[in-house]
Amino acid sequence: MEGIDERQRTTAKIMQRTLLLILPLVFVSFVLGSWAEYQQNIYLYSLFTLCNGIVGGVVFFFHCTANATVRQAVVSFKNKLCPGKNTEGED
How far apart, in whole angstroms, are the C-alpha atoms of residue 29 and residue 31? Predict the structure, then answer.
């Protein structure tokens, strides 16, 4: 594709992979919520709430890391935590 630089391509790849992860989580959350409402079970409501929290955290994390500047800061932080491993060349 003309007019798209490598940074935009990397961001698009990350967003596509993120959607493949988020879609099943949202589906599971929807099913748990529907089932909890039907059964009126407090344990299912708890699982639904936990699942929604996980979905929210995943969406927030991957939305933030789609930005190249934030992604570079995360890699820098990861390199500080694990100084022996170099992750510069990874997608």
Answer: 5
**Burial class of residue 90 (count of CB atoms within 10 Å of its CB; 0-12, 13-18, 19+):** exposed
> What pTM does this model have?
0.67
Per DSSP, the three-state class of 54 is helix
Question: pLDDT, tens digit, for every residue of 6-47?
Answer: 877 888 888 888 889 899 999 999 999 999 899 998 999 999
- Give the 3-state secondary structure of residue 58: helix
> Among candidates 17, 30, 5, which has minimal Cα distance to 61?
17
Give the span between the Cα atoms of 40 and 51, in whole angstroms: 17
